[in-house]
Amino acid sequence: MATRNTRGTLIGCLLALAFVPPLPSSAQEQEAEFVYISNITGTQAGGEALTGVAEQTAAALDNLGEALREHGLGYSDVVVSNVFLRDTRYFQAMNAVYRTYFEDAPPTRATVQADLMDPEALIQISVVAAGGPKEIITPAGLRSPALPYSWGIKVGNTLFLSGATSRSPETYQPVTGDVATQTRRVFGNLGLVLEAAGMSFADLVSCRVFMDDPRAFGDMNGAYAEFVTAEDPPARATVRAALMNVAFSTEIQCVAVSSSRRSVVLAEGQSAPRSPYSRGIDTGERVYVAGMTGRGSDAAEEARAALGAIKATLDAASVGFADVENVWVYLAEIRDWDAVRAVLHETLGDGAPEATVVGNRLVGRSRVEIQIIIKR
User: Fold this and answer.
1) pLDDT digits over 207-219, tens only?
2) Hey, is 130 helix, strand or coil?
3) For residue 288, which of 27, 206, 252, 357 is within the disulfide window of CB 3.0 to 4.6 Å?
4) With bands split at pLDDT 50, 70 and 90, how would you rate the model's confidence at 271?
5) 41 part of a folded domain
6) Number of compact structural domains in the chain
7) Calpha distance 37→107 (Å, rounded)
8) Mean pLDDT of the chain
9) 348-368 burial, b if ≥16 CB within 10 A, otherwise e?
10) Ordered DSSP codes for 91-111
């Protein structure tokens, strides 16, 4: 039988537990750890060259599985997949193989045409993976995709959204029209995913815009600005890329983060953003930097200038290149990669993560665009 003192102690403990203060918002909002695996290809098997896209897709995904296992992860831990095809005609054959590796709760995905570093490669894949619990976001008002990807996956307070195109939310069929019309439909679908995840456009931190015709950039930009917040729009990179369906003009892939510590990063002398993108968004745990370009007489000089612009943004956020978590390099000419790689190594050092590198024409005349994420 419990004594009076014992009963008093038990009651006191229960009362103490009942009045434990909630975790501060910064603890509740702590972002997850992510693993980035870049430029996976599969051009050989058993010493033999693979020449078909189906064979190369299987080999690339097998190689991805090995890379994941090195991190103690598996295919079910992949939350983002970026698939680059040398030719859009490979899309159906790639999908037929791809879906056999991601049968349940497939990762979010964007698939575009690009020039690849390996001249023998027909497909190149970069992924983001995360261990631990995940939430597959399936909006009630958005028809489930017929293709092997999820609309959204939420890990902690970070939401990854698939590359969205202009599809009817009710039928999944293309909604045609000019670039502005399609961009608005894209954001309508992104909004449904955000809402289902308990988030909004104000939580977007980074977007990639793939356009099949950069001459329509102004129209896309005008429609894009109708949805993102004016005072702190997400960081962004916009490049030219052929999409998998000729009916579509634009595909937009985004990341959103719920954070009360969100702020725009402004380098010294910079004013608040006038265009619908920020040079950097700081969530308190990560800094998402926009795709940066620079002037120069060749790709190496442009890369050095772009990294200088990035450094100014990082300095304003009190972080540095030593904290780089992920790097993307877009090249107008893939043959410039060796020169740009040397500049990256010179700036980032030996410990830098492997960059995702693709050949995509840029908006404007730049040869190089670099986009990074910093982990504090």
Assistant:
1) 999 999 999 999 9
2) coil
3) 206
4) confident
5) yes
6) 3
7) 14
8) 92
9) beeebbebbbbbbbbbeebbb
10) HHHHHHHHHHH--SSPPEEEE
| Co-location of 186 and 273 in the same domain | yes
Same domain, 126 and 137: no
Amino acid at 92: Q
Pairwise CA distance, residues 219 & 250, whole Å? 11
Same domain, 225 and 317: no
DSSP assignment of 256-294 equals: EE--TT-EE---TTPPSPSSSS-SEEE-SSEEEEPPB--
76: three-class secondary structure by DSSP: helix
pLDDT value at position 30? 63
Q: Where are the beta strands (DSSP E) in 295-376?
A: 324-331, 356-359, 368-375
Average pLDDT over residues 82-90: 98
Q: Is residue 339 a part of any domain in this protein?
A: yes
Give the 3-state secondary structure of residue 253.
strand
Here the tokens at position 146 are 């017929």
| Mean pLDDT, range 340-355, rounded to an integer | 96
One domain, residues 139 and 254: yes
Considering the domain architecture, whether residues 349 and 265 belong to the same structural domain is answered as no
Q: What is the pTM of this model?
A: 0.92
Pick the range with the lowest mean pLDDT from 10-14, 28-32, 122-126, 260-264: 10-14
Helix 299-316 with 337-348: angle, nearest 10 deg: 30
Q: Residue 310: what residue type?
A: I
CATH classification of the domain holding 60: 3.30.1330.40
Indicate whether 334 and 297 sit together in one domain: yes
The residue assigned the tokens 């809402």 is: 195
Q: Tell me how far apart the alpha carbons of residues 180 and 184 are, in angstroms, rounded to a whole number.
A: 6
- Among 216, 247, 278, the domain-final residue is 278
End-to-end CA distance of the chain: 54
Beta carbons within 8 Å of 140's beta carbon, 6+ residues apart: 196
Residue with tokens 């950097």: 280
236 shares a domain with 331: no
How far apart CA 122 and CA 306 sit, in angstroms, is 29
Place of tokens 């097998």: 62
* Residue 313 and residue 280 in contact, taking contact as beta carbons nearer than 8 Å: yes
Helix (H) or strand (E) holding 118: none
Same domain, 267 and 223: yes
Write out the residue range of the structural domain in which residue 298 sits.
291-376
Percent of the chain with pLDDT over 90: 88
**Last residue of one domain, picked from the residues 83, 105, 131:** 131
CB atoms within 10 A of CB 29: 20
